[in-house]
């Protein structure tokens, strides 16, 4: 397996992970190939979820696979500046459902709870834990509507 030495984009890189995801200051996110012997300068998938109007930066992202359907895409930021410029949001998208949760204070970080079987081929997230300045929120990803606990 070889990796490109440089993945060039025209925007500031705000976060990247070993999972081959990147998120950018122009409110876009990309999934990059990390296997194979040839270098690919283009992402496998690129999206501006709330564009084309000016949006806040996406500063953190997770893509998690599931046994049923498309992967979960969960990211912080990306909302329209007009109307959401002072909001603290995390968006969850899976299959045809997409929800943005607005928090009362700045989101410090978030993580996903996944099945613990390391031999499993899928992540299958079951909850999202969000730490904000004034609250700790757990979101049930297995219940329709993704209820906050």
Secondary-structure element string: EEEEEEHEEEEE
How many β-strand runs? 11
Mean pLDDT: 84
Inertia-based shape: globular
Strand content: 35-45%
Taking pLDDT < 50 over at least 5 consecutive residues as the criterion, the unreliable ranges are: none
Protein name: Lethal giant larvae homologue 2 domain-containing protein
GO biological process, one term: regulation of Notch signaling pathway
Keywords: Repeat, WD repeat
InterPro entries: Lethal2_giant, LLGL2
Question: Could you walk me through the main structural features you see in this protein, from its secondary elements to its overall organization?
Answer:
There is one protein chain. With 149 residues, this protein is an all-beta fold. The mean pLDDT is 84. The chain starts with 12 loop residues before the first strand and ends in a 9-residue tail after the last strand. A hairpin with a 3-residue loop joins strand 10 and strand 11. It is globular, with a radius of gyration of 16 Å. Helix content is 3%, strand content 42%. Strands 1-2-3-4 form a four-stranded antiparallel beta sheet, with no helix packed on it. The protein has a four-stranded antiparallel beta sheet with strand order 5-6-7-8, with no helix packed on it. It has a domain of 94 residues. It has one helix and eleven strands. This is Lethal giant larvae homologue 2 domain-containing protein. It holds the Pfam family LLGL. InterPro entries: Lethal2_giant, LLGL2. Keywords: Repeat, WD repeat.
């Amino acid at each position: 397996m070889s990796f490109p030495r440089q993945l060039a984009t025209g925007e500031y890189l705000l976060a990247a992970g070993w999972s081959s995801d990147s998120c950018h200051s122009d409110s876009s996110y990309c999934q990059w190939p990390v296997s194979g012997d040839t270098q690919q300068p283009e992402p496998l998938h690129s999206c501006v979820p709330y564009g084309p109007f000016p949006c806040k930066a996406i500063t953190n992202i997770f893509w998690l696979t599931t046994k049923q359907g498309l992967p979960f895409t969960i990211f912080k930021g990306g909302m329209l500046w007009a109307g959401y410029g002072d909001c603290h949001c995390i968006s969850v998208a899976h299959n045809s459902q997409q929800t943005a949760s607005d928090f009362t204070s700045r989101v410090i970080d978030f993580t996903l709870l996944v099945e613990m079987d390391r031999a499993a081929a899928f992540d299958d997230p079951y909850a999202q834990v969000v730490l904000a300045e004034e609250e700790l929120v757990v979101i049930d990803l297995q219940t329709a509507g993704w209820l906050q606990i």
